[in-house]
Amino acid sequence: MGESVKPFALHLALILALAVALAVLPPYPATMLARILVLAVFAMGYNLAYGYTGLLSLGHALFLAAGVFAAGLSAQFWGLSAGPALLLGVLAGGGMAAAVGLLALRTAGVSFMIVTLMFAQAGYLTILYFGPITGGDEGFTLPAASRVILGFDMSTDTPRFVAALFLFAIGLLVSLALVRSPFGRSMVAMRENEERSRMLGINPFTVKLAALVISGLYAGAAGAAYALLFGYAGANFATIQYSILPMLYVLLGGAGTTIGPFLGALLMFVLIEGTSRLARLWPVLEGMDYFVIGAALVVLVLFAPRGILGTLRERGLKWLP
Amino acid sequence: MTKTTFNPTRRGLLMAGGAGLLTAALPSYVAAQGAPIKIGFQLHRTGIGASYGRWYERTAQAALKLINDGGGINGRPVEILFDDDATDPARGAEVVDKLTQSDGCEVVMGTLFSHVVIGSAPRAAELKVPYLVCSEGYHVASGMLNRWTLQPGITDVRSQISAMAPWVSANLGKKVAMIFPDFAFGYDHRDFFTAAMVAQGGEVIAQIAVPPTETSFTKYFAQIPAETEVLYHVMVGPGVLTFVKELGEFYGSGAKPQMFGFIDSLEAVDTATPGLEFLEGTHFWEAHNRVKPADAGEHEAAYRAAVGVDDNGASVSDAADVATYSHMFSTWETLFAIKAGMEASGYAGPADRQKFVEAMEAMTDMPYGIERPQGAKVFNGKTHQVFGSQNISQVQGGKLVRVHQTLMEDGAYPDAVDYTTMSF
Amino acid sequence: MAFGPFLLLALMEGLVTAAVLALAASGLSLLFGVMRVVNVAHGAFFMLGAVLAWAVDSVVPAPPALAFLAALVIAPLLVASLAAVADGLILKRLNYDPEATIVATIGLLYMIQQATLALYGPNANPVTAPFELRLQFPWFGYSGYKLFVVVAAALVLLALWAFMTRTKAGLIMRATQVDRTMARAFGINVDRVYMGTFALGAALAALAGVLIVPIQQAHYLMGGDPLLLSFIVVIIGGLGSLRGTIVAALIIGLSDGVISMFFSPTLAKIIATLLVAMVLVFRPQGLFGAKA
Q1: Where are the beta strands (DSSP E) in B249-344?
Q2: pLDDT of residue C290
Q3: What is the ipTM of this complex?
C-alpha cells in the first residue's frame, strides 16, 4: 500500500470498526462509546490548536459551553429543532474562539494559557450570572421535541449512535484533510518555529487565529451534540475540568496525531470504568479513579512522552498522520 | 459487579481492569424468583458532595439491612449497587446508564446535589427506569423533570422554606436580611422565603448573594442593613464552616440581629467547634433533629442505632464525625418507599417498572414508623413530591434543641404540575 | 453599613487575600524563575500543608499555640520531602521539559488529591488558631489572627528575599536561573539546585496552607482556587519576578475586595477576571517581566 493511501485507509477502517462496535455492543458500552465519540470531537479540535499549532489553551471549556448553550437555549426558547440547533452550536463555538483568539493571541506560552483560562472562568461566571435564562448551576433539560433530526429521535439508541458516529467521522476526516493540506503545514510551522515561518511570508497571527477558530468549531459541535444527544445543558461544561479533559485526551493519545484524541478519550473512560468495577471487588479502590488516572499520566510521561500514537510514530510508524 | 454476574477469576479481573467497557457487556438480568432485587444508588463519593455521600451510603446500608432482615421485598432479598457520580451531572447520567443497563438494577436512587439530579433525570426517562431522588430540590415538584423521577423521601426546599416564615415572623422579627449562595439553591430560598414572609406581614429588606467560588465571606456581611431584625443565612459546600465562623467574627461582641439559619450551613459540622460560640441562642431549620429531642418518637433510637449515630448526631465510633443528619434520612425513607411501591405493584422485574411508578403515584398517607424516622408524610402523586413537617431548633449550651415543629400545612403550596397526565 | 467602615473592611479583607496569595504564589514564582516549569501540583502542596496542620494539631497534646508552631515546622518539611522525592523520581527524568512537567504534575495533583480523600476523608475540618484575639471596631468585629497572617506573610516573604539575595544558596539559585549551562560549567550541581528549588517552592505552598487553615478549614479540594489564583498572580507579576508577584497579589487581592463593594458579587468576579485578562492581553510579559 502506498504511503499516501495508508493513512486514509486507516481512518476509514477506524470508522468502520466503530460502526461495527456500535452495532454489536450491548446498550451500555455502546452508549458510553457514543459519549466518547462526541468528546473525541472536542479533543480533535483541541488537538488542532495544541497538537498541531502549538497553542496550549486552558480555556476550551468556554467553546464547548458555547456549543452546549447555543444549542440548548435555542431549543429551549426558540423551539429550534436539533439540526439548526447543532449548526448554531458549531457557529457559537467558532465565534467564541474568534473573539477570544483576537485578544488572547496577542500573548503566547504561559500567558496564553492564563488568558484563555481567565476568559473561560469569566464565561463560567457569566452563565451563573444569567441563571434565570441558563439555569445557573443546575442547568436545564432539553425539550424532547428539540431532540429530533430528520424525524430520528436522538433520545433513542440507534439514532444517537448514528449521529455520534457521523459527527465523529466528519470531524476525523476533516482533520485528516486539514493537517495534510498546505494550511496544515503552516499550522505545524507555527508550532515548530514561528520566526522562520514569518520569514517565509506566513502571517503567524492569521494562521493561529484560523486554527483556533477551527478548533472552536469542533468544540462547539461537540458541545451542541452532547446537549442534544444526552438532553442536558449545564454550567459544569464551562468549568476548568472541561478545559483540562481535552488536553489529557490529546496528551494520552498523542498530540499532533489525528487519531490520538479518540484513543486518549477511550483510554481515560476505560481507566475510570475499570477502576470503579474493580472497586466493587476491592473497596480500597472506591473513588480512586482519578488516582489511577494520575498514576497513568505520570507513567505515560515517563515512558511514552509523546502519547500512545506519538510514541508509535517515533518507533517506526512514520506515516501516521 | 456482583456475585450473580461476576466471578473474580483472573480473566474477569483482566477484563475489568483492562477493558471495563467490555465487562460491562456481560449479560446481567436474572429475574428468577428468589434472585436479589438490585437497586442502583448514585453516590457523591468524590467531589464537593463527598461529605454527604459517605453518610448517604451508611444510612442506605442500614435501611437495606433492616429490609433484608425482615424478608426483603416481595420475598426476594435486596441488594444496593453504589456508584460514584463525582458530584458531576455528566458523570451522574453515565452512572444511571451503567446501573440500569449494565448492572441490571430495577430502579435507581438519586442523590443530593440538584445539578446531578437534573443532569441524570433525562437519561432515566430515556431508559424508562424509575429514578427516586433524595435532593430536596424543588425541580421535581416544579414540573421540570419527568414521569420517571420521584422524590418520596424528603420534603422539597420550597415547602421547607415556606413553613419557616410563620414562626420566624411571629418569634424573631419582621425585617429580614437574607444571605444565600448565588445559584439556584440560594434563589429558591430568596424567592420562596421572601414571598412567605410578605404573606406573614413581614418584609425582606436585603438579599445578599454570595458567589459560589467564594472562600471568604466577611465582605458580604458588611452589606447587612443596620435595621435588620433577623438575619436569615444558608450556605452549602466545603466553605460552610468558614462562613459561620466569619459571621461570628464580624459581629464579635457588638450588637447583632436575631439569626435564623438553614442547617445546611452547619451540616456535618460540630456546633461546639471553637469560634461558633456566638451561635448560642440562634435558631436553625432542621428536617431531622441532630440532637435527639427529649420527646423524640418511639423509632428514633432504633434508627440511630441502625445507622450508627449517637444521641448528639455524631458517629458512634468517632464523636468528631458529625452526620449530615437533616438530609441522610431521605435515603432510608426512599428505600422503604421503594419497598412499599414494589409490594403494592407486585413488582417482579423490569417489565413492571411502569406499574411501580403508578403504584408510587397512588400513594398518599405515609404514617410515622421505623420506615419514616423523620416523621409522617403525605405523598402528592401528581407532583411526585412528598411533604412532611419541619423542625426549628435553638442552640442551647452548644447543642441544637428542638423548640418548634411545623404543621404539614405550613409548607403547603399549590401544585405546579401533574405528572400523571404525562406519557411514560 | 456606611461607606467608610465598609471600605475599611473591604481593604482589610483584600489585604488578607493578598497576603495569602503572595505567599502561595511566591513558591510558584520561584519555580518559574529558576526552573522555567509550571507546577500544577502546587495547589495540592498547599492543601497538604493545611491537612497536615490539622493532623499535627490533633495528635500533639499541647496548647493550640504550641501545636500550631509544631505544624508550622513539620508540615512544610514533610511536604518539601515529598516534593524532593517527586522531583528525583519524576521531574528529573523528564529533564524539566515544560510540557512534560505540566502533564506529570497534573498526574501528581490527582494522586495527592485522591489519596488525601481516601486517608483524610471528605469533611472540612477546623484547626484552632494559635491565639484568640478579636478586634472590635465600632461597626464590626475582626479576627486578630487574620491580621497576624498578613504580618506572617510579610515576614516570610522578607526572609525569602533575604535568602535569595544574601545567601550563597540564593546566589547559586539565581545563577542557575540566569544560565543553566553556564552554572553547570562553574561546577554547580544543577540537579541538586533544582531539587532544592522544587522542595522550597512546595514548602512555601505548605506554609501558606498552614497559615490559612485556622481561617479556612482543611478540605481535600481546597487547593484548586489557590492554584489558579497564584498562577494568575505569577503571570501578571511577570515570570520569575518576586517583586512582581507581590505587587500583583496586592492588586488582585485588594481589587477583589473593593470591586465587590460596587457590583453584585458574581458580576464583580466577572469584571475582575476580565480586567486581569486584559492586563495580560496588553502586557503579555506581565507587569514586571522583561520584554520577551
Answers
A1: 258-262, 283-286, 314-315, 318-322
A2: 64
A3: 0.89
